Amino acid sequence: MEHNQRLIDGKAMLQRVDAEAADSVMASLHTIAPDVAKMILEFAFNDIYMRSGLSLQQRELITITSLLTQGDTADQLRVHLNGCLNVGLSQKEIVEACIHCIPYVGFPKVLNALTVVKEVFADSQK
Amino acid sequence: MEHNQRLIDGKAMLQRVDAEAADSVMASLHTIAPDVAKMILEFAFNDIYMRSGLSLQQRELITITSLLTQGDTADQLRVHLNGCLNVGLSQKEIVEACIHCIPYVGFPKVLNALTVVKEVFADSQK
Amino acid sequence: MEHNQRLIDGKAMLQRVDAEAADSVMASLHTIAPDVAKMILEFAFNDIYMRSGLSLQQRELITITSLLTQGDTADQLRVHLNGCLNVGLSQKEIVEACIHCIPYVGFPKVLNALTVVKEVFADSQK
Amino acid sequence: MEHNQRLIDGKAMLQRVDAEAADSVMASLHTIAPDVAKMILEFAFNDIYMRSGLSLQQRELITITSLLTQGDTADQLRVHLNGCLNVGLSQKEIVEACIHCIPYVGFPKVLNALTVVKEVFADSQK
Amino acid sequence: MEHNQRLIDGKAMLQRVDAEAADSVMASLHTIAPDVAKMILEFAFNDIYMRSGLSLQQRELITITSLLTQGDTADQLRVHLNGCLNVGLSQKEIVEACIHCIPYVGFPKVLNALTVVKEVFADSQK
Amino acid sequence: MEHNQRLIDGKAMLQRVDAEAADSVMASLHTIAPDVAKMILEFAFNDIYMRSGLSLQQRELITITSLLTQGDTADQLRVHLNGCLNVGLSQKEIVEACIHCIPYVGFPKVLNALTVVKEVFADSQK
């Protein structure tokens, strides 16, 4: 039954990080690759996110940095920028995290990320 | 004089993050591109690192995540893994940050980073 | 005349891999860089694809893996996902290939690819 | 006052490279991260672009190559393809620069860049 | 107990793909991050590699393509080039897979991979 | 016979860009993948380098920028930094090209490139 517990706990964690994304990610993968949705919940949001050693705020900061750095991740950034806000990071911390990356990745990737940040902040105000 | 202040403050910041690296980075760039050493101090370690909004621990966590994610950065990781320890992150937090990246970048980049982490932790014990 | 044979054979190969793309790639490059269209046919689809040692199914599997891994390649993935189907790979094999990449590149790039896979499969049903 | 001079000179340089972009970049960053706009002007367009040792034509050639190579940079390419034209590179030189990258990065990134090149050349004809 | 079964089956799979690597990967992660070794076995070599839909030969072909494409993966390539041979791919197929990537990633990454291929083939002859 | 002319002209071009590399690249590929050596000569150094529209100096500037930007290319950079010097670019232009990339790729990739630049300049003085 441990397997199912991984799924249940992973779902609860994704709900906490970004409840809206939880539903839309599941829905979009439903027909094409439902097992990937399961792996995201069991592996990413249970096995990884539930580990001790880092706070959820630290985890989300790491996540958006990795997404910003690899590029071509606007969709995933959208989920985790909401995640950042949901676990209690401030808008200022999020923007600063992007700015902090400039010396490591250059301006283009940071500008791409800030474009998504701007959308997410605008949506979260509604 | 503001320009010189940027350099002085940047030097102090790099000293704080990694005193040993401060000297070796300067030395290695001295003959080939001394202006780059100056930019690292003035722009990266003054203009960016001195900003408010994130703690030095958060900044170093972001830095190693960005380096791990882009790959081919063993030398820079070495500097900033020492930086992580110097600003007060625990060994556990550093290893957890690497593990947290697995769902976002896959195992190869995380294994590469952990190889450097292992070296740095071994050296820091001496 | 060998040169022209490379072009003729490359065209035939691209027709076989993705007939529709063959026309649209040519058309889109026609005004801006017709030589690039020629190189794609002569070099990629003749010199490389016509080599022995791998089946066309293996070649298309390698192609979509490389495109998925480098990111920012939705347009090229579209062509070669159709190519996969045209050379006889099953939908299951294509989705499995994407899933197999998760431990090597992480979820974001796989999710990006699956979004294109879903579109291509939907279009191919029409 | 040196600081302000960096900003003034950086603004003048960006005006020269791409006057239209100068305004739109400033505007888009205005609410979310005005300091990043300042860094682009002071660091990128003053500290870097104003250096001696390379002509502006060489600098823009380097810029579009770096953007093409890293991928996911259509927005930045748009600015700097206009920049290429504004500092006197010919359309032929720009297309050739993209073609020259094929052996180093493969076709997909070059095709992505040529799509933007085509748009920019069409717009510049109006 | 399912959890342990994942570990047991993952170990058996890695043994089959590359028995020597199985031991050295475990050993190298033992002190620094033993949980990562466990995840590699449970997630990568059980959850992913044990799936139906692709042969082990197809899986290893995909793996080396993804490693070649992302770069900075000489250590991982070494493991999976041996894996390719162990699951029955021929030396010719492996070299062809590298060559097939040239139009997609350019020559540098393919040359880097071929350097490792050459070492692995030389070692496997001993 | 056109095919052979491509090979002959490509060889002459690589001789001109970097005579020493011409021999060592051929030698290293001789046993593992001789066709790749042929493609480098015919496609890269004939079909691409022999095109009109850019000077050899512009081509080598583009080449090192693309190599610096993609990372994990120290071996190829070594060849083309020598190539830069051989086609008449000055040491100052080469270092400036690296510095110019800082705003686009960040410091780590530029520092990696400068390490190779330093070696190549030291060797060229002997």
From TrEMBL, chains A, B, C, D, E, F:
<dbReference type="InterPro" id="IPR029032">
    <property type="entry name" value="AhpD-like"/>
</dbReference>
<dbReference type="GO" id="GO:0051920">
    <property type="term" value="F:peroxiredoxin activity"/>
</dbReference>
<dbReference type="InterPro" id="IPR052512">
    <property type="entry name" value="4CMD/NDH-1_regulator"/>
</dbReference>
<protein>
    <submittedName>
        <fullName>4-carboxymuconolactone decarboxylase</fullName>
    </submittedName>
</protein>
<feature type="domain" description="Carboxymuconolactone decarboxylase-like">
    <location>
        <begin position="34"/>
        <end position="119"/>
    </location>
</feature>
<dbReference type="InterPro" id="IPR003779">
    <property type="entry name" value="CMD-like"/>
</dbReference>
<dbReference type="Pfam" id="PF02627">
    <property type="entry name" value="CMD"/>
</dbReference>
